[in-house]
Design a protein that fits this description.
The protein has helices at residues 75-84, 104-115, 133-141, 164-169, 171-177, 192-199, 204-210, 213-230, 245-254, 264-268, 290-302, 340-350, 355-369; strands spanning 4-14, 17-26, 29-35, 43-47, 52-55, 57-62, 87-92, 121-124, 126-127, 147-150, 181-184, 234-236, 258-262, 307-308, 387-397, 416-426, 429-433, 436-437. By secondary structure, the chain is α/β, with parallel strands linked by helices. Strands 1, 2, 3, 4, 5, 15, 16, 17 and 18 form a 9-stranded mixed beta sheet that branches. A 6-stranded parallel beta sheet has the order 9-10-11-12-13-14.
Length: 454
């Protein structure tokens, strides 16, 4: 009887170094790690040659949109796209599902929907809005990984933004749970750029001017004030403005619980190269200029930015205004879940980042942020067998046929990228192999309390 899988390669990433090794996988965990290539009749063997065997990616910023908006995405297609991209764990945002995850009842609906298509591991964020203070304590006790807020309109009317006073009003609850408070950092105000977009709705430059860096910078300063007053873990999502990097670096030394993420699209694309009417690039905050983005790369190298996640936020083509190219009216979100590893690696390798550094930024650092680093984010004996196998040198083109997102509206479409995923194992089960799905429903529902399991 076959006990499990035996994976071997000359490039197994163990403790930050690549070496020739063999991994024995059984009962969902890495049972043993041996140097060199070994064999065993008790295990089904996969010799991956020169391909890299590394921890599965962890994406803590995904909008799956189920229940209620499966016409936008849904757990089935999102989990398949994740597995095809080497992602083994995702944490779902509290919007844009209907209902939004701002109550226990809504959280239970989310769990039930997720359990039907749990192809990779799934966890969840709670939402904080002005109306749900009375639900927050129960939500944070139920096993969510933390709380998400918007400081500007979220795009969804049932998930309104909060003010500084709204945050301070629930500080004692947040302090009691000591879980991350995630902030979408934009503080909007009227200015000339908004009028420019009104007059030029198809212009990307006009859209960029309509959401200036000062919006993001002022919101970050507000969150730093919250951090100083409360000492709670504060997390800045999808950083796009490089203006405050020096201040953030100093603040992180003073407050280790401050963390920062960015996304592949903010460092893979530059505003100067985005064509007018190409609304597949629209996101908020916007993709900025090359000079700004070069500074983001420096911050990734130095560790000011802790990790890289997708902010996968898909929508149907009609909401993205693909035909009209209207940036003012288009939904502001980028579908990129499956493309994150090859897109980021293609640019990272050009910018001098190693494979080892990329794994830190897309797996181990995210695991630590989520307090999952005793189980995930590393190739270690006894750890969950969540594994990505990929070829960093293999080039391929993103096409309609190889994208598994529900909608194929994607800024990476047609691009030749480097770094093809060959296989993805989730909890010791082979989910994706050689461009095909092998064993679905292999994930777990993750909560801090472990109250809910697949």
């Amino acid at each position: 009887m076959v006990k499990g899988f035996l994976l071997k390669s000359s490039n197994v990433l163990i403790e930050g170094k690549r070496k020739e090794a063999s991994l024995f996988i059984s009962n969902g965990i890495i049972e043993e790690i041996l140097d060199g290539r070994v064999s065993s009749e008790q295990y089904k063997e996969f010799d991956f040659g020169e391909n890299v065997i590394m921890p599965g990616l962890i994406d803590s910023h995904v909008h799956i949109n189920e229940p209620g908006r499966t016409d936008w995405e849904g757990f089935d297609t999102a989990c398949k796209a994740a597995a095809a991209g080497g992602i083994t764990t995702m944490i779902d945002m509290p919007l844009n599902s209907t209902p939004v995850t701002t109550s226990i009842k809504a959280f239970d609906q989310k769990l039930k929907a997720a359990s039907l298509h749990c192809h990779v591991n799934l966890g969840f964020w709670a939402g904080l809005i002005p109306q749900n203070k009375s639900h927050l304590d129960d939500l944070l006790s139920a096993g969510v990984f933390g709380t998400k807020i918007f400081l500007t309109h979220s795009g969804i009317d049932d998930f309104p933004n909060v003010t500084k006073n709204d945050i301070l009003d629930v500080i004692s609850i947040l302090q009691n749970h000591n879980l991350p408070l995630l902030a979408h950092c934009e503080l909007d105000e009227d200015h000339e750029g908004i009028k420019i977009l009104d007059e030029n709705p198809g212009s990307y430059d006009a859209y960029l001017k309509s959401r200036p860096k000062v919006w993001e910078d002022n919101a970050i300063k507000l969150m730093l004030e919250v951090l100083e007053r409360s000492n709670i873990p504060v997390h800045i999502v999808h950083l796009s403005s490089a203006n405050l990097l020096q201040e953030l670096e100093l603040k992180k030394k003073e407050y280790p619980q401050l963390s920062i993420e960015t996304c592949p699209h903010y460092v893979c694309f530059d505003a100067e190269d985005i064509p007018d009417s190409a609304t597949q690039y629209k996101c908020a905050p916007p993709i900025r200029e090359k000079d700004n983005n070069d500074k983001l790369w420096s911050a990734l190298k130095s560790g000011i930015i802790d990790f890289v996640v997708s902010d996968h936020s898909p929508a149907p083509p009609e909401l993205k205004k693909i035909e009209s190219g209207n940036f003012k009216e288009a939904w502001g979100g980028i579908a990129s879940l499956q493309c994150g590893l090859p897109a980021f690696w293609t640019k990272a390798s050009e910018n001098g980042l190693s494979i080892e550094k990329c794994v830190q930024l897309m797996s181990s650092n995210v695991a630590r942020f989520l307090s999952l680093d005793q189980r995930k984010g590393h190739i270690r004996k006894g750890y969950d067998a969540d594994i990505c196998v990929w070829n960093p040198e293999e080039e391929f083109t993103i096409t309609l046929n190889n994208l598994h997102h529900k909608h194929k509206v994607c800024p990476y479409l047609g691009q030749k990228l480097k770094g093809k995923v060959k296989a993805t194992f989730v909890n010791g089960k082979l989910v994706y192999h050689q461009d095909s799905f092998v064993s679905l429903h292999s994930g777990e529902l993750l909560t801090r309390t472990n109250e809910y399991k697949k």
